[in-house]
Design a protein that fits this description.
The protein contains 31 helices and 30 strands. By secondary structure, the chain is an alpha/beta fold. The strands form six sheets. An eight-stranded parallel barrel has the order 23-24-25-26-27-28-29-30, surrounded by seven helices. A hairpin with a 2-residue loop joins β10 and β11. α4 packs antiparallel against α6 and α17 crosses α20. The longest helix has 27 residues.
Length: about 800
């Protein structure tokens, strides 16, 4: 049926050809999801029929076609001129009386008794498709009020079908310009200018990890978030915890949010301005935990309805404090990306870091820094150009496909720059804050997005390797293969590697990089002697209720991220195993650590946890694990005690953990210990009565079996995990574990470096072997060969026995 207008109540996802992807999605959600509690602002849409009628009535169909034939498709040097002429043709047109009256009538019906502000949004009939988002290509006009302003905004939206960036995008994607119409959605305004707004993904946007929802937000209008004008708050929500009704927020990162975009009323209508955000609001999250959870639940409902990963926009009305979903479109990057194919980038040697920010993608690129203030002042760009700028808006899009990389001062993971970089496959580092001052224009730089969530800009040319891995061809052995992990930033991409979980999660890295402060310096803050150290701690903990909470929250975030990445596979976290000299290097650590002649054999591991000198710090470690397991529901977490010298010490640690709310076997909690001392091997059967499992720490066990300090350069040549004595200790440990039916694994480099060592472990019947990520695939290959050899040997032996 030919009609100029459709109400949201009359629109479904089947109406893309009539009202475009954006409006079809809004109508679908309005009709199907408001009954499930999701707030969608009501509205109506002009149809594709209205657009084509406008084009024909104004006799501009042929002129537009002729104009586009003149486009220089080699270097697009006349793109700006063509775009400007096309928009001028449309803006010079006029609405028929019928169309004009239909728009006015629909607007008045939407408003009711009093005229209301609305958002006027473009929605092309080729937009928000699974393989083409058209994100930011067409215009949106906010806080429009009154019939005249509505008609003017609708015409501007029609003209935005021919923005320079939209023309180039259609060229790149192979769409025919004259087959696409522009629908306009008119939707009741959410007063986010007085509240907050942002973007969300129902998938981790860098790795494609599906079990998290990522939300970002800023104060005021969402353009600051989309355009990357400010660095937003960032929230990671774990879907399985959300489904269980547990606390689901595994990460919260506060952005600076230095600007707030608001409306100002002037004689000729509403304009938009950016104002400085107050210090108080800069240091507040834009959403409470309850609001984050509500928004995540809505995002999950939307994902379930569409049966695909979604990219959403949300807003919070500052007058009513209500939350709303204002847009939802399919996520386009990971829908088409091969699931089992992975390209791994690795720097062979690191260099001088110039700046860092949010890594977009996982690539490494080398090129010449090119400073640009806007896309208009750019000269010739080459595939070796790395754009360095303050921020990137949709106007930049035609340039971005030509370059090696992008670096910005501002922007988060859901900013327009990040979305477009992912879609184009161009590595980007956004939100660096100081890129335009830390980098010299014209210098050669290396940008690395291959080191986790943080991307680094290095001075000069750094060599790297690129390796394509097809996980579908990797056969998993019978022996469990696990990972050794420390850095939460790498957890999501590494979860796609073939694995049976995490055999060793090193807590020390999280404390060093996320917490940074010695736990006892937080417990006994007033005992710190240096004012400068106190000041540093005060700055780090300023947004927390107390200093204990700071440690617990930061440590929990790191632990929970890794546990969530591998859920429901087991993740075994080793409690802190710093030596006293390493603890002393933490902020405030020197006031709480003794000086030891040999820290390797000193006050470390289990002996610290029940000792008055560290017992209060250990309580914070327990609280973080308890929060991850009990509050968040990450019961795949198991705990491992390092350097447990005696049976009595093992019992004391378990008692101390129980005092801190971590009771063995309660809520399925298993407690392991490391086998890294001769006493652990000799009394393995008795240790099995205390602990639920063992993990052989081959480095320490070799060191203490051979009497060699593994940190000594002079003794380096004698340190050998393949030594017969060290292997005999491992053999005894495995045999004892088998007799007591205790799980036993090994964490170390040797099974990947030495195929014969892997064969030795397999022959002895070890349950699992854990590898560092860079050694994992080689380790799997070595184990597979060992198992095949063992199987062949058994066949031969069975044959001989039978004969």
């Amino acid at each position: 049926m030919k009609t100029h207008i459709k109400k949201f109540s009359e629109i479904g996802i089947q109406d893309i050809s009539s009202v475009g992807g954006k409006n079809a999605s809004l109508g679908e959600m309005y009709n199907q999801l408001t009954t499930k509690g999701i707030n969608i602002p009501n509205g109506f849409a002009t149809t594709s029929y209205a657009f084509w009628e406008f084009i024909k009535d104004n006799k501009i169909e042929t002129p537009l076609k002729q104009l586009l034939t003149q486009l220089n498709r080699k270097d697009y040097s006349n793109l700006e001129t063509i775009g400007q002429h096309a928009r001028t043709l449309i803006l010079a047109g006029s609405f028929t009386v019928e169309l004009s009256n239909n728009i006015k009538k629909s607007y008045l019906n939407l408003c009711g008794k009093n005229l209301k502000e609305v958002a006027v949004r473009s929605s092309a009939t080729a937009e928000d498709l699974p393989d083409a988002s058209f994100a930011g290509q067409h215009e949106t006009y906010l806080n429009i009020k009154g019939e005249a302003q509505i008609l003017e905004a609708v015409k501007k939206c029609f003209a935005s079908l021919y923005t320079n960036r939209a023309i180039k995008y259609r060229e790149d994607k192979g769409f025919k310009h004259h087959t696409i119409a522009l629908s306009v959605g008119i939707q009741l305004m959410v007063r986010s200018d007085k509240g907050a707004s942002g973007v969300g993904f129902t998938i981790e946007p860098e790795s494609g990890f599906k079990n998290v929802i990522v939300l970002t937000g800023v104060w005021g209008l969402g353009e600051n978030s989309v355009q990357g004008t400010v660095n937003p708050d960032e929230f990671y929500v774990f879907k399985p915890s959300l489904a269980k009704g547990k606390y689901p927020i595994i990460q919260k990162k506060m952005g600076d949010k230095k600007l707030t975009m608001i409306y100002t009323n002037k004689q000729r209508g509403t304009t938009i301005v950016n104002r400085k955000t107050s210090k108080i609001k800069q240091q507040q999250f834009v959403l409470t935990d309850d609001e984050i959870t509500t928004m995540a639940n809505w995002a999950k409902l939307i994902e379930d309805h569409y049966q695909k990963s979604m990219d959403i926009e949300w807003a919070k009305d500052g007058i009513t404090n209500q939350l709303f979903i204002t847009q939802a479109r399919p996520e386009t990057i990971h829908q088409t990306r091969p699931k089992n194919s992975h390209i791994e980038y690795k720097l062979l040697k690191k260099g001088k870091i110039l700046t860092n920010g949010n890594a977009i993608g996982s690539k490494i690129a080398i090129g010449k820094a090119c400073f640009l203030k806007s896309p208009k002042n750019c000269g010739p760009l080459t595939p070796n150009t790395i754009i360095v700028t303050d921020t990137i808006t949709p106007d930049w899009d035609p340039l971005l496909k030509q370059v090696a990389g992008i670096i910005t001062n501002k922007g988060g993971r859901t900013s327009h720059a990040a979305i477009v970089a992912r879609e184009l496959g161009v590595p980007a580092i956004v939100g660096c804050k100081n890129a335009t001052t830390a980098i010299i224009d014209g210098d050669t730089i290396t940008i690395s997005c291959a080191e986790g969530k943080t991307g680094y800009v290095y001075k000069g040319t750094l060599y790297f390797e690129e390796k394509k891995i097809d996980f579908s061809n990797i056969k998993m052995p019978n022996t469990e293969v696990k990972m050794i992990l420390a850095d939460p930033e790498n957890a999501f991409p590494l979860s796609f590697y073939p694995n049976n979980g995490v055999g060793l999660l090193r807590m020390e890295f999280i404390i060093t990089h996320n917490v940074k402060v010695h736990p006892m310096a937080l417990v006994k803050f007033n005992k710190i002697k240096k004012y400068s150290v106190k000041k540093e701690i005060e700055i780090l903990t300023k947004n927390y209720a107390n200093k204990h909470t700071y440690f617990i929250d930061k440590l929990t975030e790191g632990i929970a991220t890794i546990a969530a990445a591998f859920y429901p596979k087991e993740v075994i976290i080793r409690l802190s195993d710093f030596k006293t000299n390493e603890y002393a290097n933490l902020i405030g650590g020197k006031d709480f650590e003794p000086n030891e002649e040999n820290p390797m054999l000193g006050f470390r591991g289990a002996s610290r946890y029940y000792n008055d000198a560290y017992k209060a710090g250990f309580a914070l470690e327990c609280e973080a694990i308890k929060k991850a397991r009990n509050l968040m529901g990450l019961t795949n977490l198991k705990v491992m005690i390092p350097f447990c010298r005696t049976l009595e010490e093992g019992k004391k640690v378990i008692e101390t953990m129980a005092e801190n709310g971590l009771r063995q076997h309660e809520n399925g909690l298993e407690i392991y210990t490391m086998i890294e001392l001769p006493s652990n091997v000799l009394l393995a059967r008795q240790f099995a009565e205390i602990f639920d499992g063992f993990s052989i720490g081959s480095n320490d066990l070799t060191q203490l079996t051979l009497g060699i300090d593994r940190d000594s350069e002079l003794m380096e040549k004698l340190f050998n995990e393949n030594d017969e004595a060290a292997k005999k200790m491992i053999k005894i440990a495995i045999q004892s574990a088998k007799k007591t039916q205790t799980k036993i694994g090994l964490c170390g480099q040797a099974p990947s470096d030495f195929p014969e060592f892997a064969s030795f472990l397999v022959n002895e019947g070890i349950d699992s072997i854990s590898f560092n990520p860079d050694a994992l695939l080689q380790g799997i290959e070595n184990i597979n060969k060992a198992e095949e050899h063992l199987k062949a040997s058994k066949k031969v032996n069975d044959f001989i026995f039978y004969e």
